[in-house]
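Feature request, filed as a ticket because there's no other form

It would be nice if the structure record came with a short human-readable summary line next to the tokens. Right now we just get the raw output. Example of a typical job, pasted below so the devs can see what we mean:
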Amino acid sequence: MASSALNVLSGIAAAAAGFHGEKVAKNGAIPGLDLAKLLPAMLGDKVGGAAGLLGSIASVASKTGLLGGDSKLGGLGNLANLAGSLLSTGSAGTETKASGGIGGLASAILGNTGSASALGSIASMATKLGKTCSSKNDLLGMAAELGKTLSSSGGVSLSGGSVAIKALDSLMGSDAKGTILKSILGGLSK
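Raw output as currently delivered:
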């Protein structure tokens, strides 16, 4: 389940980059949205700090070295565990095959394997959708709609959504991709 959460979260980040008009690199890196930095911040840490449950999870992660790892694979596993504590997925992998629009993008995210080609495809779909928006507000509305669609059709939910989104505010400020990502996550929280 944790790796499903990481795949969904990486797909959401790829969609945010795509809405901003950026491509995912051939190695799967999402420009400006490094989940290895974003996830711990969203869970809370001693610097930015989130209170309650999320802060406790981050504290445990830090004390046990969950964010460490001797190998790249170990680091990815630890990242998946963090994603699993932040994002839960109900029926990920059983997505309906919608042909296009927000539903199609949500399906691609829910069926995402985390591979570079899958993330690239998600970013490309989001770019095409984003170009149909006439203003920044329309784009943010579309991003929020994507979050709502993921929540309703895929059972995706964000633990402590408002705390996680506030942590992104502290980390990313008014960065355009960060604002889009926050809109998608905000849609999940409603």
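Something like this underneath would help us a lot:
The chain has nine helices and two strands.
Strands lie at 87-88, 157-158.
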